[in-house]
Amino acid sequence: MPRQSRRTLHLTVIALHRGAEDCDAQLHESALVNKNRNGSVLSLVVFGLTGQRYALPLHAVERVFPMAEVAPLPKAPAIALGVINLHGTIIPVLDIHRRFGFPPRDYGPAAHLLVARTSRRTLALPVDEVFGVREFAAEAAVPADAVLPRIGHVAGIVALADGLLFIHDLETFLSLEEEHRLSEALETRGR
Predict the structure, then answer these.
(1) Is residue 39 domain-resident?
(2) What is the CATH number of the domain that holds 137?
(3) Torsions phi, psi for 149 (to 5 deg)
(4) CA distances from 46 to 109, 140, 141 (A)
(5) Burial of 40: CB neighbours in 10 Å, binned 0-12, 13-18, 19+
(6) What band does 31 get if pLDDT is binned at 50, 70 and 90?
(7) What is the pLDDT of residue 112?
(8) Pick the residue with more confidence: 21 or 173?
(9) Which of 46, 58, 52, 43 is nearest to 164 (CA)?
(10) Residue 170 belongs to what domain range?
């Protein structure tokens, strides 16, 4: 993602979190620059869902915006809440809450949609809150299997002073069957 697009996303995330229209004055240009010239820095978009913090790599996130109306998508897998129309592009909305086996829930108008891309498609994830972009030393992220074997759908875990941060692996978010059913449902809808 070009540096300017990353900066725009960063400003959008901060603006949503702080409720500010223009947060340029609150940030400086180096906010997205690799500060550790001798090591890797992991840039993550951190968000909350049902009291737990999660993250996605910044490079995978396209934008964040307030919750929008989600249209039903017949014959989609249970993890799909439906679809949104984003500037003429139909994007499936997938529920992290359902993915981890929690009961279905309604996302109210205070929620946000986090639009991200995988190697196969762009998708939207409803989240309760977006905390912004955080940077961590790459070695701070521990492989998920080292802490919680067979957790699935989690690429890594970062220990924070007040809890854990689960880094999602969107490439494994859908099973092959779910991916196939979602593709078929989207294709049928497009006819």
Answers:
(1) yes
(2) 2.40.50.180
(3) -55, 140
(4) 20, 15, 14
(5) exposed
(6) very low
(7) 96
(8) 173
(9) 52
(10) 35-190
Average pLDDT over residues 149-166: 82
Q: Who contacts 158 (Cβ-Cβ below 8 Å, separation ≥6)?
A: 44, 55, 136, 140, 141, 142, 164, 165, 167
pLDDT, average across residues 50-69: 93
Q: Cα torsion at 158, 161, 163, 166 (round to 10°)?
A: -20
Amino acid code (one letter) for 92: P
Residues 6+ apart with CB under 8 A from 30: none
Does the pTM surpass 0.85? The reply is no
In a domain, 23, yes or no: no
Q: Is 181 within 8 Å of 75 (Cβ atoms)? A: yes
Residues 42-56 have a mean pLDDT of 92
Taking the C-alpha atoms of residue 135 and residue 183, their distance in angstroms, rounded to an integer, is: 34
CA distance 177 to 169: 17
